[in-house]
Amino acid sequence: xxxxxxxxxxxxxxxxxxxxxxxxxxxxxxxxxxxxxxxxxxxxxxxxxxxxxxxxxxxxxxxxxxxxxxxxxxxxxxxxxxxxxxxxxxxxxxxxxxxxxxxxxxxxxxxxxxxxxxxxxxxxxxxxxxxxxxxxxxxxxxxxxxxxxxxxxxxxxxxxxxxxxxxxxxxxxxxxxxxxxxxxxxxxxxxxxxxxxxxxxxxxxxxxxxxxxxxxxxxxxxxxxxxxxxxxxxxxxxxxxxxxxxxxxxxxxxxx
Amino acid sequence: xxxxxxxxxxxxxxxxxxxxxxxxxxxxxxxxxxxxxxxxxxxxxxxxxxxxxxxxxxxxxxxxxxxxxxxxxxxxxxxxxxxxxxxxxxxxxxxxxxxxxxxxxxxxxxxxxxxxxxxxxxxxxxxxxxxxxxxxxxxxxxxxxxxxxxxxxxxxxxxxxxxxxxxxxxxxxxxxxxxxxxxxxxxxxxxxxxxxxxxxxxxxxxxxxxxxxxxxxxxxxxxxxxxxxxxxxxxxxxxxxxxxxxxxxxxxxxxx
Amino acid sequence: xxxxxxxxxxxxxxxxxxxxxxxxxxxxxxxxxxxxxxxxxxxxxxxxxxxxxxxxxxxxxxxxxxxxxxxxxxxxxxxxxxxxxxxxxxxxxxxxxxxxxxxxxxxxxxxxxxxxxxxxxxxxxxxxxxxxxxxxxxxxxxxxxxxxxxxxxxxxxxxxxxxxxxxxxxxxxxxxxxxxxxxxxxxxxxxxxxxxxxxxxxxxxxxxxxxxxxxxxxxxxxxxxxxxxxxxxxxxxxxxxxxxxxxxxxxxxxxxxxxxxxxxxxxxxxxxxxxxxxxxxxxxxxxxxxxxxxxxxxxxxxxxxxxxxxxxxxxxxxxxxxxxxxxxxxxxxxxxxxxxxxxxxxxxxxxxxxxxxxxxxxxxxxxxxxxxxxxxxxxxxxxxxxxxxxxxxxxxxxxxxxxxxxxxxxxxxxxxx
Amino acid sequence: xxxxxxxxxxxxxxxxxxxxxxxxxxxxxxxxxxxxxxxxxxxxxxxxxxxxxxxxxxxxxxxxxxxxxxxxxxxxxxxxxxxxxxxxxxxxxxxxxxxxxxxxxxxxxxxxxxxxxxxxxxxxxxxxxxxxxxxxxxxxxxxxxxxxxxxxxxxxxxxxxxxxxxxxxxxxxxxxxxxxxxxxxxxxxxxxxxxxxxxxxxxxxxxxxxxxxxxxxxxxxxxxxxxxxxxxxxxxxxxxxxxxxxxxxxxxxxxxxxxxxxxxxxxxxxxxxxxxxxxxxxxxxxxxxxxxxxxxxxxxxxxxxxxxxxxxxxxxxxxxxxxxxxxxxxxxxxxxxxxxxxxxxxxxxxxxxxxxxxxxxxxxxxxxxxxxxxxxxxxxxxxxxxxxxxxxxxxxxxxxxxxxxxxxxxxxxxxxx
Lengths: 256, 256, 417, 417
Ligand SMILES: Cc1ncc(COP(=O)(O)O)c(C=O)c1O
Ligand SMILES: Cc1ncc(COP(=O)(O)O)c(C=O)c1O
Fold this sequence. Notes:
The complex is a heterotetramer, with two copies of chain A and two copies of chain C. Chain A is of the alpha/beta class. Chain A has helices at 2-11, 29-41, 61-72, 77-90, 101-107, 109-118, 131-143, 158-167, 189-201, 215-224, 232-252, and strands spanning 17-23, 46-50, 94-98, 123-125, 147-152, 172-175, 206-209, 227-230. By secondary structure, chain C is α/β, with parallel strands linked by helices. Chain C is globular and about 55 Å long. Residues 91, 93, 117-118, 120-121, 196-197, 236-243, 311-312, 356, 358-359, 384-385 of chain D line the site of one pyridoxal-5'-phosphate. Residues 91, 93, 117-118, 120-121, 196-197, 236-243, 311-312, 356, 358-359, 384-385 of chain C line the site of one pyridoxal-5'-phosphate (PLP).
């Protein structure tokens, strides 16, 4: 599959790939572009473009606010796909749709996957869609070479991790800890053990998100996973000082 | 009995005797004296001195206020008796105690009657003491030549009026209508009939109170009773303009 | 013991207390009322009708709840609660009111009046009047109107006219005076729904009779859930209706100790409280139609009373309870405002119950005594009402800043309209 | 009809609706919950324990009251009311909450969280937590905190922490989001006590199960008091728990028409109301863990909703009710705020009942239909709660000057402290 090759090739030059996150239309699409330029400079490998949803119940405060303001300012799904098309043309990194299932459901599974493909996306992450409900969507996506990213979490039983592994495609999104996005994760031995287990079970590379925010985190993850995923930390930097702060943030990660 | 003779002698000169009312200590004992002087000038035959009580539940708003203020300003039963002694010495009219039963009860029946007698009182009117409860008090009073005044009311059955009549002494206080003190009474044929009936049943003279306030009322009562009783109307006059207004009021009754 | 089996010529008397001291003009009305009450009391179908009404409209029987947490925390007696708070309108007052509503129908009267302190009796009466289609006027001391506003709001919306009484100390006793004044004026079409087991005969008997439904239920219930009769039964005593209601179920059980809990306010001392028997500031007198212990001075004028609980803030007390107290069948205790607030907080946090401030007096005393009792002893408390109505008072007592802020914002909003 | 006899592979689905859409991290927790619920559902002693608890603590069974005055006034069907308002804490919410409390004990969890709209569910949960000794955190939209302050006050005093949710439109749905956020963080020691028959499987089934106590009681009761089954049964529908609770008693009685009454707010039109089925502004979607009709735009973002009744002000609806609506087993109607106020006033004045604003939706619709029905037909309304909690809202809706004045004086007093 296309994604496997892409990951393999990127991994030749570095220990740990990097995925970052942007909420479409927050604070504006123009701002998004500026963020993405910096991320591209920093050499990120993937970007999740979050399609804003009015009920972001798996997100923490910063993303909640971003979703809410984007929705209130009238950002539509159509605009998000247009933006994705522009981004995937302009940048080297690969783009995934991240969002809630209602966005997908309202479009219809096929229409969604077709639009994603047309916009140059390579996959999607829909955290409130459990495997049991994902059947037809995942099937059709795979048929179109679009990767449905599944999640492994610290509360899963080993048996459940096996089931998730079977459904995995592209990479597995490993959630480092309980909770919503935005909190801090203590990268300790226990987390390392869990990440090793996931990497072991997963047939595809693993990316680790939730609370990844500092160089130490990336150094830690390099030993236990294939990719680090930075979400809230980047948005927080942007909120604090826009381009300058975001540059500094990636600088602090040793990437700029 | 003493009272019978007194009433008979007063009635030789007029068709209708008159009883008036003063709340002891309201607005002050001095003011009471001024009121009483005017009443004496107007030739009243009886005065009820109301001993103020904290729960004057048979009184209307004006007397309620008077009772309340007198109680609050510290007027005591002892002061009331002292005042009564002074009044009965100084004036020609006869004086009765008017008040609520608790005042009597707290002193004790005999102590109360003895004090009343010592202060020159000739009787008492205690509207919340029903006949059934009055036994020992009335007995002792009669033995001391103190008249316990009983009341007849428009809601009484004929049988009940007979019972009341049996207990009567001095005169009977006929309540002209339902309600508390202070309201207006329409002196119509129905009232006339009721008063005639009471006079008929009563072995002693009848005095009529509740809503007696104008010359027409007295003219009416002259045909149906032996005495008119003026309560609130006089206090109202005093409230409006003290001595001057009270004089005018008795003037309007043709008595000054 | 039949408290109501009066000696000849002593109708309405409990020992030295009770009687009927009313103006002559009410004699006929009272006679009618006594006769009508005797009729229903001796009509076996009436109690059925009453019970049926209370079942279908007010949710009776109310349960007896075991307070396992509180009992464990206190480490002594097992505590049970009779849940009069679950009644429609939120207190035991509805028992008496619906009974008098049925009676009023038999009397053929179309208008009811009532005094109210905490507002619970007024709320219940307004409800009854709506249900029976009577006109309704509620007299309430101006002080009580201020501290029990939510109840006033509902009474008005139930169609009652609420009169704020400005006389006297503007609490329950003054509202009773106003009712008597209304009654002597309108007795031909008006029934006076007295709200507590006080006032002239037959009210103490009649109100006790309707409230006896509490004790009749509770006696069987507690035996079922606790496996035995209670060792001590606690009820708050304002006029005495909820206490009489519950106590009647256990009067003949000599092993059951009955404890009446009065409003201790700030503690002993004239004017500081509303405790007629537990403290020593009251004496026998005759007022508001009956003879009992009153908080009064030596001239017989009533003292000011004070309590955080409007419904206990009353000068007199049910005459049968005084009689039972003299015979040492009922023990009387006073509970201070401070103890009441603590008891309320404890109940809320440990059991999820919100007793009315009145009822919290009974809880407070039980909470004090329970730890000194043995684990196989049983306490029964009467939760005469729920505390929802007390939100303004409780918020003030607990000095709740959120609440104050909320009220200020609300007021600004109204001001800006 | 057994709604809960799911087809293989369609667990938690009612026709096309329902399911369980939650983040992967909750999978284990939900599995545990489903297993525990199945255990109690198939444990015959559990229902007994539950019923016993509801009897002794909440005063069940609640009665069915005949509204003779209202029926006569409307001149049509005989109207009866199931009195869930008489429950402890004042609404049907306690049924579900105590059931989940027992379940939580079996799960060995020590902390509960809950969303609340009207505050009734939060109040009930805080009460349950006090009674069971759980830690408790209640999430409530900031708008709801403002309009249901009395309930917030009591929740806090019962020991719960109340969090005013500032996200979104600051009502019920946003409180649910916050609960989900808390739950994905604390599921190891925390049970999420969802308050209505919505959200992910097994909540719709579980909440309906506990609430079925309403219908189980009501079916026998109405036959006894009305002599027949009802012709129409009305219940308000927020998430759908009180409606499911009552309707389950009559699902197999084809002659009984079931009517769900939604919040019509200002009337039809996006953003004006919270009616998912009666008006045509909703469509199928997946949010807050389940698939149902949501008030949403074409992108699947939720619309603003509006209702005088906080407890009905919700974007989604119980999936079983949607299924029953599609099968024409349940009729859906919307009731506007204006109709609700009128119905409430009428109930207070004619029957002495104060239905919660939520319940008043069911009353309003029944009042509209009753006159067109014949005198031997029977209506049953679910009075899901009492209106005491709504005093601020009702006072505003009725524009009560005395109340405003009272609040202003109170505020001045606080200001001067
Ligand atoms: C809840 C409650 N309990 C008790 C009382 C006290 O009255 P009683 O002594 O008649 O039971 C009241 C009076 O208003 C009340 O509202
Ligand atoms: C009294 C009352 N009725 C009804 C509802 C609506 O909820 P449901 O549809 O789950 O019964 C609520 C919700 O808070 C409520 O408080």
